[in-house]
From TrEMBL:
This is Sodium/calcium exchanger membrane region domain-containing protein. GO terms for cellular component: membrane. It comes from the Eukaryota. It comes from Stephania yunnanensis. Belongs to the Ca(2+):cation antiporter (CaCA) (TC 2.A.19) family. Cation/calcium exchanger (CCX) subfamily. GO terms for molecular function: antiporter activity; monoatomic cation transmembrane transporter activity.
């Protein structure tokens, strides 16, 4: 009971912050105050997410000549003005979902996911420093489990619901999306930050081992599924689980002797 009360206390500020920055898309959940707060705060949050490209305190000329204001103050002034106008003018909820509101809700959801992921990476780096563990090993274990547990639960639920083909496609599509879009966008962003200098990748041996095991599992799955006429035999599932156990053992040994 006490744990539930503490959980409720922690949930209130988090849910309030999400309400203020993520607009509700359903007309039945329309709230004039929260939507006006969304208009005021969402541009500032998006500006914060782009701080690696544009500094928040970048000086700009606004309204008065020869006056230089920080960029964040100009954005906050403009968004707050629009929010006040919306709060005064709009008094009735929309009849149906509006596409701009849906897009803003999606973008802000991605913003919060990215922000939480960044803080998680900072926590992992701190744990690695305290325990003297390489960052690559933490990424292969804690971060990988955190990213994959949701996919595991969703794929199992879809398979039990009678859609094994969809679950199988999700098992391969999710890592492919992370590899191509996630890694690709991160590399593009980092190369833009250091341009015109070259961005040098620092590969740890654990990453090389992970690529080897990943390639082996993909090639093995391709051969086994082709040989079994695209039916997944039970023994291959045990083989994949065993392969992951071996991979974790090898990663632990490498992390222990590569300090």
């Amino acid at each position: 009971m006490a744990i539930q009360k503490v959980s409720k206390v922690w949930e209130v500020p988090v849910l309030t912050l999400l309400e203020l920055t993520i607009p509700r898309t359903a007309p039945s959940e329309w709230n004039r105050f929260y939507l006006s707060a969304n208009i005021a705060l969402c541009p500032l949050a998006l500006l914060y997410s782009c701080k690696s490209f544009i500094p928040l305190d970048h000086k700009v000329v606004f309204l008065l000549p020869h006056s230089h204001f920080p960029l964040w103050s100009v954005v906050l002034f403009a968004s707050t003005s629009l929010a006040l106008v919306h709060y005064i003018v709009e008094r009735e909820p929309p009849e149906r979902e509006q596409l701009p509101v849906v897009l803003v809700a999606f973008v802000m959801s991605v913003f919060w996911i990215s922000t939480v992921a960044g803080e998680l990476l900072n926590c992992l780096a701190a744990i690695g420093t305290i325990l003297d563990l390489p960052p690559a090993f933490l990424g292969l274990t804690v971060l990988a489990w955190g990213n994959s547990i949701g996919d595991l639960v969703a794929d199992v639920a879809v398979a039990k619901a009678g859609q094994p083909a969809m679950a199988m496609a999700g098992c391969f599509a999710c890592p492919m999306f992370n590899m191509l879009v996630g890694l690709g966008s991160a590399l593009v962003s980092q190369t833009l930050n250091v341009y015109p200098s070259a961005y040098e990748l620092q590969f740890h041996v654990s990453i090389v081992v992970a690529f080897v095991f990943l390639l082996f599992s993909l090639m093995g799955s391709l051969l086994v599924l082709t040989w079994s006429r695209f039916r997944v035999p039970r023994f291959w599932g045990f083989c994949l689980v065993g392969l992951y156990v071996v991979f974790m053992g090898v990663s632990l040994v490498i992390a222990k002797f590569s300090r």
